[in-house]
Design goal:
With 226 residues, this protein is α/β, with parallel strands linked by helices. It has a single domain (33-60, 75-219), classed as P-loop containing nucleotide triphosphate hydrolases (Rossmann fold). The chain is 36% helix and 23% strand. It has a 5-stranded parallel beta sheet, sandwiched between helices. The radius of gyration is 17 Å and the shape is globular. The structure holds adenosine-5'-triphosphate. Adenosine-5'-triphosphate binds next to helix 1.
């Protein structure tokens, strides 16, 4: 049986005790090495769920197990270390450090996680390999992130998420700034690289057209009554 990379049971999260649940779901499982497309309208709780998966937020009720670890069982500092070691994130706005080069941005996870650095082997060579695999030519590697196009920034963000072979890659609507053809090409590159290192991918978007690229999809319904 394939082990689950992510297992969620009976999850409830509210931003405030008197607010409607931002996330409420009975169960969700993502098997190791598979890709999940998570969709739902604006405000449905997609980003909130990703923060719960990363252990940035803790649920009011229920259980989130990532790679066999129940996140709520870890103290905050160990949750941060677990996230740095095992999860690669691509953020909506990419969150690159503009004064660093593309290459230096890709290397950042190796500074925060010894495990990611070790798994990268030669981190600089691996960062350059990932950038090239994501269709970024060598001159771009050394350019400051501030000087990159949106499409180039997105590929740098993807390489940064993938370096050191994290078991799980989480992408929060990273394609919305691109046209349809470029969105498709980006997703194919991301999934190919993730598959090559057997990473599980959770990809969030409101654009259901993208679902066809993924092994499975899951809909978040939107705000529920308190
Ligand atoms: N920091 C916060 N404090 C309080 N409420 C929040 C916070 N972040 C999100 N929310 C609320 O939680 C709900 C879910 O928001 P979330 O950002 O998870 O949705 P989303 O599906 O990612 O939306 P989008 O597609 O627009 O990014 C919304 O009602 C939102 O207003």
């Amino acid at each position: 049986m394939t082990p689950a990379a992510i297992r969620i049971d009976d999850l409830l999260f509210r931003w405030r005790p008197d607010a409607a649940p931002a996330v409420c779901l009975r169960g969700l499982q993502v098997d190791a090495g598979k890709s999940l497309f998570l969709h739902g309208p604006s405000g449905a709780g997609k980003s909130t769920l990703l923060n719960l998966l990363g252990g940035v937020l803790l649920p009011e009720r229920g259980r989130i197990e990532v790679l066999g670890q129940v996140l709520g069982d870890l103290p905050a500092a160990r949750r941060d270390a677990f996230r740095a070691d095992h999860l690669g994130f691509i953020f909506q706005q990419f969150n690159l450090l503009p004064w660093l080069s593309a290459l230096e941005n890709v290397l950042l996870p190796c500074r925060f996680s010894r495990r990611r650095a070790q798994r990268a082997g030669d981190p600089v060579a691996e960062a350059r390999r990932l950038l090239a695999a994501l269709d970024l030519a060598a001159p771009v590697h050394d350019a400051p992130a501030a000087e990159l196009s949106v499409g180039q920034q997105q590929r740098v963000a993807a390489a940064r998420a993938l370096i050191g072979r994290p078991e799980i890659v989480i992408a929060d609507e990273p394609t919305s700034a691109l046209d349809a053809a470029r969105q498709d090409a980006f997703i194919d590159l991301l999934l190919a690289e993730a598959k090559a290192v057997a990473s599980t991918v959770v990809f969030v978007s409101h654009d259901q057209r993208l679902a066809a690229h993924f092994d499975a999809s899951f809909a978040l319904a939107g705000e529920l009554p308190a």
